[in-house]
From TrEMBL:
InterPro entries: Ald_DH/histidinol_DH, Ald_DH_C, Ald_DH_CS_CYS, Ald_DH_CS_GLU, Ald_DH_N, Aldehyde_DH_dom, LUC3-like
Ranges for domain Aldehyde dehydrogenase: 33-475
Protein family (similarity comment): Belongs to the aldehyde dehydrogenase family.
Residues annotated as catalytic: E256
Protein's recorded name: Aldehyde dehydrogenase family protein
Keyword terms of this UniProt record: Oxidoreductase
Length: 482
């Protein structure tokens, strides 16, 4: 993931809200308690939105949209820049809240990194242009392609990168003259409500609304007749429900869904040299990342060395409470996800896999901590390979020929990302072209960049985010001909 260096805390200024001030703005003392996944302590209380709250938020967004779209583009650019300033001013408090609610550590590619990426994406979106295209200009015809706002955008997100994914949805939508209603995950509502509160310090009223709640609230928003476009990031199953409900109103959709990314390691690599990048490709955000490396296919010639090098890196990475500065890995965000990881590692063990490290959680310890786990000698059919683990457990599968590796990588019905690891860049690029994934990285995995389009293949979804393509995704093309 490309973002500025945000590992150093931003120095507080007079305008910097404390965490308590942020919480006071967004919490409802009578609301549902939101637990810290590392300790079980209550982080804050969140009001549960109702269907009426969704309807009201959509009505406000609808009413605000024409005036927002009528502003000169330069004003929206300026406001996105100021929104980035506001995020940076509140960065340390936002990071602390994110760490407490999501579980991810402050340091490493985690909470401070995520907040820094929010500001970076706001600025990049403000700096991206989508000019009118002249498509035909000859003696008989002059035709131009313009991009108009869609209207009201519903933005529904998951719990793994709650702030960053909200910005990915909100920033381009606002830039193109849409208004937005956000529905955060029920697991991480406070992070998203705090972020939208900070953005609303600079945005005009009702351009950006948010309603917390569960899947029913999400369904109300995604099926709402007055919502013109849904930006959804989450599981394939929920994406399928949203596709069905979009039919009645022919709603436009961008769907970033689940993945089970394969990485293929060719025999010409230096195992020591790639081990750190392989590790973070798989274990970023403690494995709770859509486009993380979830199945590692390693050529038999370097298999043992790659496994040994990964174990060495894994051993050196401290896992623990996110607020403790030394940690770079945290808990699973929720118990349901912990149970999925535990079940899949058990299936791997039962299927004859060799646990190289981890696989031995203490079920009575506080928090949802599952140890960093590497499993070797595992069958490609094993559940830990075939299902998305979305947590800190990586299966490492041995292969003998490249065609076999490609067949295994492509055999699943999802295709978000993939990677090829080789010292021969041309050979890696040729292999990349054979993989069924929205992005194929070479000698890295999972890096996203605000100017490089990102989207899925197969059941990992459709539509692109980021850059010019991301702006087009929240606009309606209009041809003016004559
Ligand atoms: P989820 O689908 O359970 O929930 C996502 C959001 O959808 C939540 O806000 C939830 O309340 C809402 N929702 C639930 N039912 C709904 C319905 N019927 N209609 C509308 N909204 C509804 O996903 P999750 O467990 O929060 O996230 C994990 C999944 O997300 C993983 O599969 C992961 O791979 C995927 N993910 C994908 C990307 C990507 O960019 N492709 C990024 C992050 C996560």
């Amino acid at each position: 993931m490309t973002a500025p260096d945000v590992s150093t805390p931003v120095q507080p200024t007079q305008d910097t809200p404390t965490l308590q001030q942020l919480l006071d703005r967004i919490t409802d003392p009578g609301g549902r308690p939101v637990p810290d996944p590392a300790t079980g302590e209550v982080v804050g209380h969140v009001a549960q939105g109702s269907a009426t709250d969704v309807d009201d938020a959509v009505a406000r967004a609808r009413a605000a949209q024409p005036a927002w779209a009528a502003r000169p583009d330069a004003e929206r650019v300026e406001l996105l820049q100021r929104a980035a300033d506001a995020v940076e001013a509140a960065a340390e408090s936002l990071a602390e809240l994110l760490s407490r609610e999501q579980g991810k550590p402050l340091n490493g590619p985690n909470a401070r990194f995520e907040v820094g990426a929010c500001a970076a994406w706001l600025r990049a979106t403000a700096a991206t242009e989508l000019p009118v295209e002249t498509v035909v200009d000859d003696a008989d015809e002059h035709a131009e392609l313009h991009y108009r706002p869609v209207g009201v955008v519903g933005a529904i997100g998951p719990w793994n990168w709650p702030m960053m994914i909200t910005i990915w949805q909100v920033a381009p939508a606002l830039r193109m003259g849409n208004t937005v209603v956000v529905k955060p995950s029920e697991y991480t509502p406070l992070s998203v409500l705090a972020l939208t509160a900070v953005l609303n310090e600079v945005l005009p009223a009702n351009v950006l609304g948010a309603v917390a709640g569960d899947g029913e609230v999400g369904a109300r928003l995604s099926g709402h007749p007055d919502v013109d476009k849904v930006m959804f990031t989450g599981s394939t199953a929920t994406g399928q429900a949203i596709i069905r409900s979009s039919a009645d109103t022919v709603k436009r959709l961008t769907l970033e869904l689940g993945g089970n990314d394969a990485g293929i390691v060719l025999p010409d690599v230096d195992p020591q040299a790639i081990a750190q990048d392989l590790f973070w490709g798989a274990f970023i955000n403690t494995g709770q990342t859509c486009a993380a490396l979830k199945r590692l296919y390693v050529h038999t010639d370097v298999y043992d060395e790659v496994c040994a090098a990964l174990v060495e890196v894994a051993r050196a990475m401290p896992m623990g409470r996110g607020l403790e500065e030394q940690n770079v890995l945290g808990p699973l965000q929720n118990r349901a996800q912990y149970d999925i990881v535990a079940r899949l590692v058990d299936a791997a063990r039962d299927g004859g896999g060799t646990i190289l490290i981890g696989g031995d959680p203490d079920p009575d310890a506080p928090g949802n901590f599952y140890p960093t786990t590497l499993v070797a000698d595992i069958d490609d059919e094993n559940a830990l390979v075939a299902e998305e683990q979305f947590g800190p457990a990586l299966p490492i599968i041995r292969f003998r020929d490249v065609d076999q590796a490609v067949a295994m990588a492509n055999r699943l019905d999802v295709g978000l990302g993939a990677s090829v690891w080789s010292s021969d860049r041309d050979a890696a690029r040729d292999l990349a072209a054979r993989l069924e994934a929205g992005t194929v990285w070479i000698n890295k995995h999972g890096g996203v960049h605000p100017m490089i389009p990102f989207g899925g293949h197969k059941r990992s979804g459709y539509g692109l985010e980021f850059g010019v393509e991301g702006l087009k995704a929240v606009a309606v093309p209009q041809v003016i001909s004559g």
